[in-house]
Amino acid sequence: MTGVTRSRSSRETGADTPLWLKPLRRANLRDQVVTAMRNAIIRGQLVPGQKVAEEDIAQELGISRTPVREAIRLLEMQGLVEVEPKIGTFVASPDLEDVRDSLSVRIALESLAARQTMDRLESAVWQLLLDDLREITGQMQVTLDPVQAVELDIAFHTALVSGARNRYLMRTWDLVGVPFLIWGPERDLYAGRPKPVGPNLAARHEQLIQALEARDASRSDAAIQQHCEEKLRDIAAHSGPTPRPPGGG
Questions:
Q1: What is the C-alpha separation between 234 and 63, in angstroms, rounded?
Q2: Last residue of a domain, which of 91, 114, 144?
Q3: For the segment 66-100, what is each residue's pLDDT rounded down to a tens digit?
């Protein structure tokens, strides 16, 4: 079982033409489809359990089905959609155990990244990285746009991973879809919120920066663990009982 849940109505009937569909430029069509669908999910225009028809998307975007099919494969890898052979593609809704597992992987990757960044960057470059992270956090503080909040979240964590100067780590980070979106379960933190997410998001990332400033591996490990546990608690508050912490026994 994948933990994906769907409403009967969304499985059996396709939605009317979505407002988020607009004709695309010819270059990088796959990436544009990924971005359009990701943003629609973040904004709550595509909801968990909703069927995503490959043919309808291609027709409305004015493109062939090939880039749509490629985009769906990538979105499936990233955990945003679930493909059921001979049935269709649906917007995924991971259960809390899926969320916990995904965040456990994230903790491992980011902890390794922080440790290697501390070991490998000279003091001046290390300071530049911290300055970049602070700049991103400052932008988080003022954003009212959930999509921009997601993009800034991506930029923050990708900058940290990139600082490790480990191409294999960066490749693994890429494979989980971070360049296109936050980890699939985290979209629930942004979609449909009645108030801006920026200030709270900024405060949490500021805590990470403060831990990194100490250039202490144990402290950064603890901060990354706490950062992901807070995300898990947020998701649990919207979904039901609080699950075990990520990375825990």
A1: 38
A2: 91
A3: 999 999 998 888 778 899 998 999 998 767 787 78
